[in-house]
Amino acid sequence: MREYYIAAVEMLQAQQEPTEVDGAPVILKKSPSEPRDGYLDHDELAIMKNHWIAREQGEEPEVPPSPEEAIQAMRDSMGFPNRNLCTVEIHTKFETLNIGGNEVGLWRYYPRTTQREKNRPCFIFLHGGGWVGGTPYTVENPCRLIAQLANAVVFNVDYALAPEKKYPNGFNDCYGVVEHIFNNADFYGIDKNRIGVGGDSAGGNLTAAIALKDRDRGTHMVALQVLMYACVTMVNLGVPDYKWSIGAYEIAEEQRSIIEPCLGISRPKSEDDDAIQMENLYFDDPKVQAREPYASPLLAESLEGLPTMLSVACEYDGLRIQDELYAKKAAEAGVKVKSIRYKGVTHAFIDRLGFVPQAEDLCIEIANAINAM
To answer: What DSSP state is assigned to residue 356?
Structure first.
């Protein structure tokens, strides 16, 4: 089932001692297959060579795609065919909620043997995809594994996507799901005091925003937030203490041509860049809405009073700098934070469960955080 030895996961699990990075403690999880600094993990590199690079070398279309075709092509490129690593039977149930006029799909997963238990911990997973793509299906296997490892009920949310439904539609959907689960905790057999929310990339952004709104409203529904390589600011300029720099990344010269393209997310772009910009798809008014704290949590006036945070960053991800800054600011505000940087891997690695050991290790870290609520 796995494309690696379980010893690789055990090696990652053993790495729990933090190192001070820019004045904050960060656990630097070294690659089990690549001891050298500046290099990609061997499993990660193999995936890139066999999948991403080969796909990108396809022929260019003779006619430029329409905006709709470009968006669909971007959506089609997301995700990775991961593996189910569960060793017990996991039950799946589905329902549709109406939240603010939007139909929101909601899956839930739990070990069959716990289906009649009460007061189970709960974790709500928000998939990534830049607010315009991604699907709950990509993260089903991670959700199942987390459900097994934590003996928990794990929910998986199909929220509204832009540009068909722009901000704050997706955010409102996800916040509404948290409210629904909190208010119906007895029906789901969960402990309303042990609700965790987490997501990867755009899902991490939505998670951080939900934690902020939950604090602002004084509802205290969320006991744990898991930010997996999250986008916490849509704004690159004028953000206190935040500066993106290629010099922050240690890159071996022989792999620079492979690694540098992986750092495009959050990298400042020129005004004449004609690539599709996520903020233009996500917002009606990017210049104004991108500065709202529920769109860019790093711009919140204070992070005080937020729930416990597990912050996860990838060494070769353009979001790493803002991720670790957000975790640092949260810790300085009194939030209990565990910050991890996975060395040698790139954005969205949880999608590659079963192919890279870091994805399995991350599921274990999330399960441990759920059980510690």
So the answer is: B
What's the one-letter identity of residue 221? M
DSSP string, 106-163: EEEEEEGGGTT-SSEEEEEEE--STTT---GGGGHHHHHHHHHHHT-EEEEEE---TT
State which residues form the domain around 262: 6-56+83-268+278-371
Which CATH number fits the domain that encloses residue 232? 3.40.50.1820
Strand locations in the chain (E): 19-21, 24-29, 90-99, 102-111, 120-126, 153-158, 190-200, 224-228, 308-316, 337-346
Q: Residue 63: inside a domain, yes or no? A: no
| 105-139 confidence digits (pLDDT tens) | 999 999 999 888 999 999 999 999 999 999 999 99
Mean pLDDT of 44-60: 69
**All residues at 6 or more sequence positions from 359 whose CB lies less than 8 Å from its CB, including other chains:** 82, 142, 349, 350, 351, 352, 353
What's the structural domain count of the chain? 1
Q: Does residue 98 lie in a domain region?
A: yes
How far, in Å, CA of 234 to CA of 131, rounded?
A: 12
